[in-house]
Amino acid sequence: MFIDRLIENIKSKKSPVVVGLDPRIEMTPQFIKDIAFKKRGENIEGVCEALYLFNKGIIDAVYDIVPAVKIQVAFYEAYGIEGFKAFFKTAEYAKSLGLMVIADVKRGDIQEVAKMYSKAYLQNQLFDAITVNPYMGEDTIMPYVEDAIKYDKGIFALVKTSNKGSKDIQDIKTTKGEYVYQSVARMINRISNSAIGKYGYSSIGAVVGATYPEEAKVLRKEMPNCFFLVPGYGAQGGTVEDIMDCFDENGFGAIINSSRSVIYAYQTPYWKDVYSEYEYAQAARAEVILMTGMINNGLVKRKYIAC
Ligand SMILES: O=c1ccn([C@@H]2O[C@H](COP(=O)(O)O)[C@@H](O)[C@H]2O)c(=O)[nH]1
Q1: Which NCBIfam families match?
Q2: What is the number of domains present in the chain?
Q3: Mutate which of 27, 104, 160 for ligand 1 pocket (most atoms within 8 A of beta carbon)
Q4: What pLDDT is attached to residue 22?
């Protein structure tokens, strides 16, 4: 099952860190752009080649120390068909090195449309899991759940997102006296019963932001079946302490995504005097090792088992 494979990958890499491949052309090292533009021209094709080459460097540097990568489709979709090619090529390369691939596509929509989104991603062998948006209601996520079970894939449903504005709707109190995100959490946890693996977690998981540690603590209890995909670590302000309550005492229960803080580590105050732009991938590796060490130390301090 997807979730068992994910847990086994976390165990074998001894890391719950997911690297987010969200490349920006304006932050891409010049030497990569030079290579890409020379090969494909200083145009959309060249830009997309540069994004792919950048990702390839990161993947080469981290594939042996993380269980998965998360690829945010917006950074590719912005460039049309060439962007999509870079998106698929990135997924293909990550898979070829044994990484699990989460497509961050946050899909939703009415059932008939959701079926087509699901066909695009969950029926595609390149992707192990996708993110979905359940805020249109249960019927809209069932096509993804059905395909996840049928094709042995995973889904992570948005429950409490990491952005500031997540409170605008997700934190409204319902007539039952709970927050909207808790109602969504209850729905997802119930649905997730249909896909529980041998470690007690389901292939139907939840997105819970690192920037809301109190809410995450509540949700960990209210969603015992659901593995959390936790964005918001690093660049958005989430810290190791903030994510601790996403884990269970066996050191499972969560994968922690970091995109900018890892892929652009060489530009951060911590690493910028150590690594040049030519060494951006080594900097990303160093940041993942540091992040993994800090998370595992945090787990040990709590007397939880480290990953
Ligand atoms: O609640 C959410 C859900 C998804 N994301 C995604 O995670 C990364 C975060 O990038 P950073 O550079 O580490 O901030 C990005 O792909 C978002 O789409 C999120 O941030 N919050």
Answers
A1: pyrF_sub2
A2: 1
A3: 104
A4: 98
What's the confidence (pLDDT) of residue 118?
Answer: 98
Residue 130: C-alpha distances to residues 44, 53, 123, 156, 226 (Å): 26, 23, 11, 6, 15
39 alpha carbon – ligand 1 mean position (Å): 31
Predicted confidence at residue 65, as pLDDT, reads 98
Question: Which residues span the domain enclosing 41?
Answer: 2-301
Q: Name the nearest CA neighbour of 226 among 244, 238, 208.
A: 208
Identify whether 306 is part of a domain: no
The per-residue pLDDT for 127 is 98
Do residues 170 and 133 lie in contact, with contact meaning Cβ atoms separated by under 8 Å? Answer: no
Number of helices followed by number of strands (H, E) in the chain: 13, 8
- CA of 22 from ligand 1 middle (Å) equals 9
pLDDT of residue 238: 98
For residue 123, the model assigns a pLDDT of: 98
Note whether residue 18 is domain-resident. Answer: yes
Distance CA 114, CA 186 (A): 21
For the chain, list residues with pLDDT below 70: none
> Among candidates 261, 257, 247, 222, which has minimal Cα distance to 298?
247
Which ipTM value was assigned to this complex? 0.99
Distance CA 232, CA 160 (A): 11
Tokens matching residue 99: 């990484």
Structure tokens at 215: 């809410």
CA distance 122 to 146: 10
Q: Is residue 210 part of a domain?
A: yes
pLDDT of residue 119: 98
Task: Say what the pLDDT of residue 232 is.
Answer: 98
- Which one of 257, 261, 262 would you pick to mutate in the ligand 1 pocket, going by the greatest count of ligand atoms within 8 A of its CB? 257
Domain of 109: which CATH number?
A: 3.20.20.70
